[in-house]
From TrEMBL:
It is found in: Cytoplasm. Gene3D superfamilies: 1.10.150.530, Aldolase class I. It comes from candidate division WOR-1 bacterium RIFOXYC12_FULL_54_18. GO terms for cellular component: cytoplasm. PANTHER family: 23S RRNA METHYLTRANSFERASE, RADICAL SAM CORE DOMAIN-CONTAINING PROTEIN. CDD domains: Radical_SAM. Keywords: 4Fe-4S, Cytoplasm, Iron, Iron-sulfur, Metal-binding, Methyltransferase, S-adenosyl-L-methionine, Transferase. Its main location: cytoplasm. The keyword Phosphoprotein does not apply. GO terms for biological process: rRNA base methylation; tRNA methylation. GO terms for molecular function: 4 iron, 4 sulfur cluster binding; metal ion binding; RNA methyltransferase activity. This is Radical SAM core domain-containing protein. It holds the Pfam family Radical_SAM.
Length: 346
């Protein structure tokens, strides 16, 4: 089989190396990178800064893989897109317009998710595979054709720290000033709490931001809601975040989806306060968006908010967008007309 490599999965250094190998002048390798990651070109034939002969030589080994948008749903200040990957898997991403000047893309890092949170549609669908760097950036390039993207959150399908290399490779291309030039501090990696990934992020030179999805402040309840076999304990995650903050001096966000009667009780609030005393953090309370009718209910956010504020914690309530297109937090499922995947396109 003639295996083609995806240029969207290559970083700047790799494109320069390819340029050297194919006899491109250094400025042409730069232009090739800019065309792929800055202009979102979808085939080598569109890159007219290269001569026809240069493009033909490259096209024998490389392609620019562009996942096909299968379904686009427009809602109130949101657009959800489902993409079909080369092997037929489907992933979703959402563009959210919080303010005129702030356009955020919620990106998927895996097809499905191995963590399996009970309140999340992605988790219930199981895990398919990791996305390549090209498949990750492609979700953003699709929306970048409509709007200038200012912020990214890795809060779509998947656990980004279980696909660390590809996620960081994608983030670096999105941050590159020849690419979309999205500031690293506007790129948030949201994790269920994988210490190995937190430790690696602490050593990255870019100021990428970290968010921890706490789910419950008690390990026993947390394990019931998040049935991932290797789920680290809360003290282990707190320790990893403590080391991360000692190295980076960066505040983190604790994301907390509020579930009625499950994690919004007074004892939960007290324990969240105790955990947050160990960290420099901001707590973001997230309304529960229905994924299974009747199973969970949105919790008492107002009460949590005022109790946490009363002890002077930094706390906000997530402005929930995307519910009208089944694209809010926890609702991405890659289900189109009842199917989860389709046959390969080629
Ligand atoms: S909430 Fe996040 S970590 Fe949990 S199953 Fe859904 S995508 Fe995975």
């Amino acid at each position: 089989m003639n295996y083609m490599e995806d240029l969207r999965s290559k970083n700047f250094e790799e494109i320069v190396e390819i340029g050297n190998k194919f006899g491109l002048a250094p400025f042409k390798a730069r232009e090739l990178y800019r065309s792929i990651h800055g202009k979102g070109k979808e085939s080598l034939s569109e890159i007219t800064t290269l001569q026809l002969g240069e493009r033909s030589k490259l096209a024998k080994q490389f392609e620019i893989e562009t996942p096909k948008p299968l379904q686009i749903k427009k809602g109130n200040r949101t657009i959800k897109a489902a993409f079909e990957l080369k092997d037929g898997k489907i992933v979703e991403a959402v563009l959210m317009e919080y303010e005129e000047e702030r356009k955020t893309v919620c990106v998927s890092s895996q097809a499905g998710c191995p963590i399996g949170c009970l309140f999340c549609a992605t988790g219930r669908g199981g895990f398919r595979r990791n996305l390549t760097p090209g498949e990750i950036v492609s979700q953003v390039y699709f929306f970048a054709k409509m709007h200038q993207i200012t912020n990214l959150v890795f809060m779509g399908m998947g656990e980004p720290f279980l696909n660390y290399n590809n996620v960081l490779s994608a983030a670096k291309n999105l941050n590159n000033d020849l690419g979309l030039n999205i500031a690293a501090r506007k790129i948030v990696l949201s994790t269920i709490g994988i210490p190995a990934g937190i430790n690696r992020l602490a050593r990255e030179p870019g100021q990428y931001r970290l968010a921890w999805s706490l789910v419950s402040p008690f390990d026993r309840d947390r394990r019931q809601l998040v049935p991932y076999r290797s789920l680290p304990s809360i003290p282990n995650v707190v320790e990893a975040i403590g080391d991360y903050q000692a190295k980076t001096n960066r505040r983190i966000t604790i994301e907390y989806v509020v579930l009625r009667g499950i994690n919004d009780r007074m004892k939960d609030i007290k324990e969240i306060i105790a955990i947050s005393r160990h960290l420099d953090c901001h707590i973001n309370l997230i309304p529960y968006n229905e994924t299974i009718p009747g199973k969970f209910e949105n919790g008492n956010i107002e009460k949590m908010y005022s109790e946490l504020r009363n002890v002077h914690l930094k706390v906000t309530v997530r402005q929930s967008l995307g519910g009208d297109v089944q694209g809010a937090c926890g609702q991405l499922s890659a289900k189109l007309c009842g199917t989860e995947s389709r046959p390969p396109r080629r």
